[in-house]
Design brief:
Number of strands: 11
Radius of gyration: 41 Å
Number of helices: 3
CATH superfamily of one domain: Galactose-binding domain-like
Order of helices and strands: HHHEEEEEEEEEEE
CATH class of one domain: Mainly Beta
Helix content: 10-25%
CATH topology of one domain: Jelly Rolls
Mean pLDDT: 81
CATH architecture of one domain: Sandwich
Largest sheet: 7 strands, antiparallel
Strand content: 25-35%
Low-confidence stretches: 24-75
Oligomer: single chain
Amino acid sequence: MKKDFSSIMKVFVLVLLVMLLCYVPGCKKSSPEDGNGNSAQKSVSEHPSNSEHPPTSEHPSTKPIATKESTAEKSTAPAGMVPIDIKLPKPMFVGTPQSTTVANLEKPLGKPRPPFFAPAGVTNVALGKPVASSDEEPIIGDIEMITDGDMEAADGSYVELGPFAQNVTVDLEAIHEIYAIIVWHYHKQARVYFDVVVQVADDPDFITNVRTLFNNDIDNSAGIGVGEDKHYTETNEGRLIDAKGVKARYVRLYSNGNTGNDLNHYIEVAVYGKPVN
């Protein structure tokens, strides 16, 4: 009887061992853990494979690569130069500009004029400076208005000189390094002015050290010489002439009527430079 009971106990123990061995692997499969004690199920729920924002470490191709071009802004200004501060008047064209059939006429840029660079410290040195004119009694306005800082094309802001060739001369009252000259003739209409010539000199009679910076007189009708610069349509930006740092005291501007009439108009002349030390 003891032998039979002993045999039964052995069988019972063997069955328990078999059941225990089968139960433990099943538990491990249903809830395995990583080395940090975190379950794999939790890891999947935090980083699903179809996530819209996968970890960067899992997708290195989507990580932005820092380069000198992407992290540093390129400067377009030449070394030692800064854009000059040009305050522009508001556009004044009313309606459709009239057609202007003019020889040697440049095409409109179609976008704002790019910045003009000059050394730091350059300002409008013509502001408030004396002005002389070939027409001592303008039809409209006073000569002093040409350097009063008002570039608008409204009535009362421009000077109207007589017909045919006329000129105005700005006295900077000292020798200056001149980098840009901007002239606004009349930009309330899309006009083209003829025989536009810009010169600088060391004396008011324009005898000493005369230099021509711009000339679109294609037939020498003004008697100053044939120019190769193009005619242009007046806009609120005015005409900017690159003076390239020329040194001078006097600035003279010529014109000879326009596509609207034979008269000559000046709203403002700005000269951007700095005194010569």
